[in-house]
Design a protein that fits this description.
Length: 365
């Protein structure tokens, strides 16, 4: 209107000019209108694009398929049996036994961001390389990797054994970086206790434990670790006379859960669950869970995936001798740990959203 007034004052006598002006204004308005429509379309498209890409980011399902040997990015089979996972940022490291040489494993390290692509990071503890005894009079089983918050170092505890299982010792290795080199810190019987099948457990407050089968497979021993994670500083016998091994622990809400197996070598047996309000005391008598052969697995660890929406707990087990030791499979399926109970149901295939910490059955969609 201001423009019209201005033009009118200047050209009042000139009707032709006025007509031109009106045409010009119409043209300008039309152009603006078209620009406005274009801008609106652009904004709408942007909003739609953002909505779609956020939705796509919000839901990224990784399918886990059990029953086959995993392959690494070099095309080799993933050899990481009896191991565990350590999360560093959005990378998960998998450490475990390299059973290519059957009875006498080295220790391999892999990394993944999606549990589908496995990058071989190297042989972090090697027979005849890392220490002179290893691969000659000693072998490693069930290596477990932790990161010590106090020192920032990476620490591996494992079963350190002689061929006849008579040594009954543990060993500790340490490195400044996750990929090594790892140095032997110590090997022997923790607190003088004969110690075999083992695991580690890092509690939610950062306190770490080594837990192993003790007393000639009669009991479990819980060993609290020093704050640098390299030494056992106390020993508490647990599940006395229950003959359990392959213990895997989780702390969920106010309860501790432990899944373990009986001692039957490579032959699978029924898993059992025991629960306690404190890690060092009060464990209930273990109760059978799942089928009578733990779906042909033996526990190696419980993987905790803390997402933006939920925390998922994944049972990780070894399907040993399938059909031979190097072809043993890593089996993973989600479990629910709630109110002192576990939902322990095998799945051939299932999917997890690692960012959100949510899992679903493949048949759900
Ligand atoms: C299993 C144990 C394995 C390995 C095997 C040897 O009971 O869990 O780690 O020691 O026996 O027979």
């Amino acid at each position: 209107m201001n423009l019209i007034n201005f033009f009118c004052i200047k050209n009042l006598k000139n009707l032709k000019n006025l007509k031109n002006l009106i045409n010009l204004i119409n043209l300008i308005n039309l152009k603006n209108l078209i620009n406005l429509i274009n801008l609106k379309n652009l904004i709408n498209s942007l909003v739609l694009f953002l909505a779609f890409s956020t939705a796509a980011q919000a839901q990224q399902w990784t399918r886990i398929e059990n029953g086959r040997l995993w392959t690494d990015t070099n095309g080799n089979s993933v050899q990481a049996h009896g191991g565990n996972f350590l999360q560093v940022g959005d990378v998960w490291y998998l450490v475990g036994e390299d059973r290519t040489d059957s009875w006498n494993p080295d220790v391999n390290l892999y990394s993944t961001r999606d549990f589908r692509q496995w990058k071989f990071e190297g042989k972090i503890i090697g027979n005849g390389v890392t220490t002179p005894l290893l691969g000659r009079t000693r072998m490693i089983e069930r290596p477990k990797l932790m990161r010590c918050p106090k020192t920032g170092k990476f620490v591996v505890w494992c079963h350190w054994e002689a061929k006849d299982y008579g040594a009954s010792e543990a060993a500790v290795f340490q490195s400044d970086s996750v990929g090594g080199p790892y140095q032997l810190v110590w090997a022997g019987r923790p607190m003088g206790v004969k110690s075999r099948d083992c695991n580690v457990f890092v509690d939610t407050d950062g306190a770490a434990y080594f837990i192993s089968t003790t007393n000639e497979n009669q009991d479990l021993g819980l060993f609290a670790l020093s704050d640098d994670y390299t030494r056992a500083i106390s020993h508490t016998p647990l599940l006395i006379g229950q003959r359990r091994e392959a213990p895997a622990l989780a702390h969920v809400d106010s309860l501790y859960y432990m899944i373990s197996s009986a001692c039957t070598g490579w032959v699978p047996n029924q898993a059992q669950l025991t629960v306690s309000a404190t890690v060092g005391d009060g464990w209930q008598v273990p109760q059978p869970i799942g089928d009578n052969v733990a779906y042909r697995t033996q526990a190696s660890s419980i993987l905790r995936i803390e997402g933006t929406e939920a925390t998922a707990y994944i049972y990780v087990g070894d399907r040993w001798m399938d059909p031979d030791l190097p072809s043993s499979k890593i089996i993973m399926f989600p479990i629910e740990l709630r109110d002192g109970q576990v939902t322990f149901e095998y799945r051939d295939k299932w999917e997890i959203d690692l960012k959100r910490g949510v899992w679903r059955d493949c048949s759900d969609h």
